[in-house]
TrEMBL record, chain A:
Keywords: Electron transport, Transport
Family: Belongs to the ETF beta-subunit/FixA family.
Chain ranges of the Electron transfer flavoprotein alpha/beta-subunit N-terminal domain: 21-219
Protein name per its UniProtKB record: Unannotated protein
Transmembrane segments: none
Coiled coil start-end: none
UniProt-listed InterPro entries: ETF_a/b_N, ETF_b, ETF_beta_N, Rossmann-like_a/b/a_fold
CDD domains: ETF_beta
An MF annotation (GO) of this entry: electron transfer activity
GO cellular component: cytosol
PANTHER family with a match to the protein in the record: ELECTRON TRANSFER FLAVOPROTEIN BETA-SUBUNIT (PTHR21294), ELECTRON TRANSFER FLAVOPROTEIN SUBUNIT BETA (PTHR21294:SF8)
Pfam families: ETF
Automatic annotation (TrEMBL), chain B:
UniProt similarity note: Belongs to the ETF alpha-subunit/FixB family.
A molecular-function term among this protein's GO annotations: flavin adenine dinucleotide binding
Protein name: Unannotated protein
Source organism of this protein record: freshwater metagenome
Lineage: unclassified sequences, metagenomes, ecological metagenomes
Matches recorded under InterPro entries: DHS-like_NAD/FAD-binding_dom, ETF_a/b_N, ETF_a/FixB, ETF_asu_C, Rossmann-like_a/b/a_fold
One GO BP annotation of this record: fatty acid beta-oxidation using acyl-CoA dehydrogenase
Length: 261, 317
């Protein structure tokens, strides 16, 4: 199987984030591999390992695909050190401020050209938090959508995938033929830590950096634009008391004063 | 006058409060049409549950494809109606299903998409709270239909009586949309308490409950609140996953959020940070969640909650 995994480099969740001129100030924060995408990488590796491996001469390959600035190679190295085979980074100044529509279009074009059987994504990038890119890629590609999976089973012989989809609307069992776009929730597995051997091997793996022209996508403007962004007033410091036996009563007094009861 | 299309939101076979919130936001922009996507034979019954909200017209499309092929089939029908009406805005509830349907329609019709709005202005400018609620962003779709998903419980719903004209329609579901097949569906387990994302008050328990949610539930019930949980609690199997609050659970914005025995990891904060009032009960005075508390009690939740529960009951009596 040819498996693609879409991974994004995002600002560290712990970092103070700032908007500058309608864009996230990515230059001045630590950047990491989107932690929800680690589950996608892990799931791809597990699927490959269960069906003939992805080592040299194995039956499968796991290719990372990312769109972002050149420094996203750092995040790709991490995912390569977990065991992915190679990576494609689409990086071009024209993508600065790209919205979901443009991102999904570009990624879908690269995936289409790559001839993959399945694509695996995280459910959400921790910076944009949209949870739409996998569904939008599936629409663009005309491939089956198998998203929010807490369990994935692949049958390479029959070219069939089944998932358990878990959302607030309940639990669904869904199946489809290849090719398909999968996204996985964080409950699905425990991502491995890169081994020393993995880290050394990753240094030699290929990251193919491509500009916009080679993606074959049509350049659209971003269809949604940020008008303005402003920090919200920080929450006024609250009252913290120590329970001396009256904590519960004082809590009720607070709720009463605030007219919450 | 411009038209606004909303995708009517249902839990089970009942229109939700989100439907009324979408109608409220939509009525600020133009005349609201609601689309009901129903299994065959269920359209009239579902539409009949839309009793509130400023909705002028309801369009009903029936097809079992919505059940069998989920998101993709619903997006096909919604895109078809959107393309016919060319509304100024298409408003959809912000949850996994709503966002994915919105994304597919945006891709099909090449429209801009904005997710998780907490407000929508009459000129279709959407307000979002990003980076854990630390930043307010206003976004716009400069041309065409603005596809906006609206976070439940953030717009004050106008519960006017709805008296819409009902119209039946059909839509062709493409073969591409039928590529994924749903073989079974289990609705979420529903207790007697309010829906987490719709509740005015949420009381949540974490690892500090040590598996005993009795005190948390009793306090919640005294307040008429929904019960939430941290991932530590859902992972341990102490509370159903559908009640998890946080980055990979639900995002809630109630009037009051009470966190009991929850430390305040960034992933938990991501789901509750925009609550209007936050109360924290934790044994550890250093617990990071105290930074967000309007009122905090350093103490054992099993000692604090029972008298608080009695106090609330006495207050209400
Ligand atoms: C990819 C990813 C996604 C995640 N998504 C989520 C998510 O959506 N939601 C989420 O909640 N977490 C999520 N997490 C987990 C998160 O990082 C924390 O591990 C989790 O929130 C901790 O839960 P907790 O606060 O209940 O437990 P702990 O951090 O162990 O805190 C328990 C607290 O209870 C207090 N306590 C103990 N006993 C008592 C008592 N008797 N009375 C009062 N206080 C007491 C302790 O002092 C402590 O502060 C995610 C993690 C990852 C990696
Ligand atoms: N720029 C990107 N490059 C690669 N993958 C992405 C990118 N943006 C989003 N994705 C994938 O889509 C998923 C959902 O992202 P989002 O819709 O932005 O929340 C992520 O977990 C990634 O797997």
């Amino acid at each position: 199987m040819k498996i693609a995994v879409c991974v994004k480099q995002v600002p560290d969740s712990w970092a103070q984030k700032k908007m500058v001129g309608g864009l996230l100030d990515r230059a001045n924060v630590d950047a990491v591999l989107n932690d929800l995408d680690e589950y996608a990488v892990e799931e791809a590796l597990r699927i490959a390992e269960a069906h003939g491996g992805n080592e040299e001469g194995g039956a499968n390959t796991v290719t990372l695909i990312s769109m972002g600035p050149e420094r996203a190679t750092e995040a790709l190295r991490k995912a390569l050190s977990m065991g992915a085979n190679d990576a494609i980074l689409i990086s071009d100044p024209v993508f600065v401020g790209a919205d979901a529509l443009l991102t999904a279009n570009v990624l879908a074009n690269v995936i289409e050209k790559g001839g993959f059987d399945i694509v695996i994504c995280g459910t959400e990038s921790t910076d944009a938090r949209m949870s739409v890119v996998p569904a939008m890629m599936s629409e663009k590609l005309g491939w089956a959508q198998l998203t929010f999976a807490s369990k994935v089973e692949v049958d390479p012989g029959a070219k069939k995938t089944s998932i358990t989809r878990v959302t607030e609307s309940g639990v669904d069992e869904i199946f489809a033929q290849f090719p398909c776009v999968i996204s996985v929730v964080e409950k699905i597995n425990e991502p491995r830590y890169p081994s020393f051997k993995g880290i050394m091997a990753a240094k030699k793996k290929v990251i193919d950096i491509q500009g916009f022209a080679s993606t074959g996508a049509e350049l659209t403007q971003s269809w949604s634009v940020v008008v303005d962004a402003a920090p919200r007033p920080t929450r006024a410091a609250g009252v913290v008391i120590t329970d001396d036996g009256n904590g519960g009563v004082k809590l009720v007094d607070f709720l009463g004063e605030k007219k919450l009861i | 006058m411009s038209t606004v299309l909303i995708l009517a939101d249902f839990v089970g076979e009942k229109a939700t409060k989100s439907t009324v919130e979408l109608a409220t936001a939509g009525a600020g922009i133009g005349e609201v049409t609601a689309l009901v996507l129903a299994p065959a034979g269920k359209g009239a019954a579902l539409a009949a549950t839309i009793t509130q909200g400023a909705i002028a017209k309801v369009i009903v499309i029936e097809s079992d494809d919505f059940i069998q092929h989920g998101v993709a089939a619903s997006a096909d029908a919604l895109a078809h109606v959107t393309d016919q009406l060319k509304p100024a805005a298409l408003l959809i509830a912000s949850h996994a299903f709503g966002k994915e349907v919105a994304g597919r329609v945006a891709m099909k019709l090449v429209c801009g998409i904005i997710t998780d709005a907490v407000d929508v202005a009459p000129d279709c400018t959407a307000t979002q709270l990003v980076f854990g609620g630390s930043t307010t962003v206003h976004s716009k779709v400069p041309q065409g239909t603005a596809i906006i998903t609206v976070r439940p419980n953030t717009i004050t719903a106008d519960f006017v009586a709805a008296n819409p004209v009902i119209e039946n329609a059909t839509a062709q579901i493409s073969d591409v949309a039928k590529k994924a097949t749903v073989t079974s569906t289990q609705p979420p387990v529903k207790g007697g308490r309010p829906e987490l994302t719709e509740a005015n008050i949420v009381v949540s328990g974490g690892r500090g409950t040590n598996g005993d949610f009795g005190a948390v539930e009793a306090f919640a019930d005294s307040l008429g609140a929904a019960v939430g949980a941290s991932r530590a609690a859902t992972d341990a199997g102490w509370y159903p996953h559908s009640h998890q609050v946080g980055q990979t659970g639900k995002t809630v914005s109630p009037q009051l959020y009470v966190a009991c025995g929850i430390s305040g990891a960034i992933q938990h904060r991501a789901g509750m940070q925009t609550s209007k009032n936050i109360v924290v009960i934790n044994k550890d005075p250093e617990a990071p969640l105290f930074e967000l508390a309007d009122f905090g009690v350093v103490g054992d939740l099993f000692a604090v909650l029972p008298p608080a529960t009695e106090g609330v009951k006495a207050h209400k009596a």
